[in-house]
Specification:
About 30% of the residues lie in helices and about 20% in strands. The chain has helices at about 30-35, 60-65, 125-130, 145-150, 160-165, 165-170, 180-190, 200-210, 215-230, 240-245, 250-255, 330-350; strands at about 20, 50, 70, 75-85, 95-100, 105, 140-145, 150-155, 190-195, 270-285, 285, 295, 305-310. Strand 12 (about 295) and strand 13 form a beta hairpin. It binds flavin-adenine dinucleotide.
Length: about 350
């Protein structure tokens, strides 16, 4: 066992029932690196942390030392739209943008990402593609009009209207203007750049990257080609087609998708570039359990007496129940379900 697995904590079997509910491994950078999935290339050197350092896998590691079977260790889910928090709560704190569909997504050299790597489409395939580009970051290029309508930020502290259950504040999302937390990133976030034209924006992008990676004329051609497709009713640009599709649904039209417009339309400006980092977040594998949350032995000998697991530590139930391409936003449900099932298992065994 490598040193990065030596997180403190051992299980003794004095207690009748121990439920491991310590979350995943996303805050343990060394362990994530050791287990990084082969299909995703190499782990980036530069990234942001989407969970606190306490999510270090201590419970799973201790269970493994006690003989538990930790399956699908390579299954993990990391986001590609991470921004460095200007007001961090934990070390290297990154926030995930929950993006609407309109931003132009380009790699570190300014090349547009291929379909289906559009904002909010397919996280894992986008990550797979980005790991082939030779750089750790990518960019959203958008307009003020898009950021006002389409940027939402993940995390309870970024959504005071929802966490405060304030219906009036929630409804204010329909109003024009950027939501307060998004405006704060525009004002203070190191990854946010604004300019009136492409050459100035690209000069800022290259300065932030510390290298002249993007050619301003080439990026302007890419933007103009995208903008030209807006006038084509038979456009084969699948992102433009998706914009029109999203606008047909009232919910998206009201708060998630800006009316389609040219990125170079001065009325929609200024132009904005947002540098995106990989954001370490979720663990999809975990301690193998049965439907009563009983942790299974690595040697195939059945359940380990008195040891149960729930939540992300159990791969949301049994070890990777969501599969490789877990559906966005379904994690909490699995945590609640496996917590319930573990309680049922403990009660049945204590009777
Ligand atoms: C910002 C953010 C937004 C998210 N948004 C969504 C979403 O919209 N939808 C969705 O489905 N999922 C979302 N998730 C994922 C979801 O929150 C997690 O998968 C879920 O919280 C995991 O629950 P858990 O109880 O297994 O672990 P956790 O919530 O990580 O809780 C583990 C607890 O164990 C404690 N702990 C760890 N080690 C030890 C130790 N050695 N001793 C004692 N205590 C320990 C930790 O302090 C923590 O309190 C989000 C996650 C984050 C970080």
């Amino acid at each position: 066992m490598g040193s990065n697995r030596e997180v403190s904590g051992e299980f003794t079997h004095r207690a009748a029932a121990v439920v491991v509910a310590t979350g995943g491994i996303g805050g343990n950078e060394e362990l994530v690196r050791e287990l990084w999935p082969a299909g995703l290339g190499t782990m980036p050197d530069s990234f942001v942390h989407g969970v606190p350092a306490s999510v270090d896998g201590a419970g799973m590691l201790a269970a493994e030392r006690a003989g538990a079977h930790w399956i699908h260790q390579q299954r993990m889910w990391h986001y590609t739209e991470g921004i460095r928090n200007w007001d961090p709560i934990w070390r290297g704190h990154g926030i995930r943008i929950l993006p609407g569909p309109s931003s132009l997504w380009v790699d570190a050299r300014g090349n547009r990402l291929p379909a289906p790597a559009y904002p909010g489409f397919d996280t894992t395939s986008t990550l797979r593609h980005l790991r082939t580009t030779g750089h750790d970051h990518s960019w959203f290029v958008l307009t003020r009009k898009i950021i006002e309508k389409e940027f939402a930020l993940s995390g309870s502290e970024q959504n005071p209207d929802l966490t405060g259950k304030d219906i009036r504040q929630v409804l204010s999302r329909i109003k024009p203007g950027a939501p307060g937390p998004v405006q704060a990133f525009l004002d203070h976030g190191e990854d946010f750049l604004q300019a009136e034209g492409v050459p100035t924006l690209v000069a800022q992008m290259n300065a932030l990257a510390g290298e002249d990676l993007i050619d301003a004329a080439a990026l302007e051609r890419t933007i103009r080609a995208r903008d030209a497709e807006l006038a084509n009713p038979f456009s084969k640009d699948t992102q433009i087609t998706a914009l029109h599709g999203a606008r047909k649904y009232l919910g998206d039209r009201l708060i998630r998708t800006a009316s389609p417009h040219r990125l170079l339309d001065p009325k929609a400006g200024p132009l904005i570039a947002v540098r995106l980092h990989v954001l370490l977040r979720k663990t999809l594998g975990g301690l193998e359990t049965d439907l009563g949350g009983r942790v299974q032995r690595a040697d195939g000998g059945g359940a380990l007496p008195g040891l149960y697991a729930a939540g992300e530590a159990s791969g949301f139930g049994g070890g990777g129940v969501h599969g490789h391409n877990a559906l966005e936003g379904t994690f909490l449900g699995g945590c609640l379900f496996t917590g319930r099932q573990a309680a049922v298992g403990v009660l049945a065994d204590l009777r």
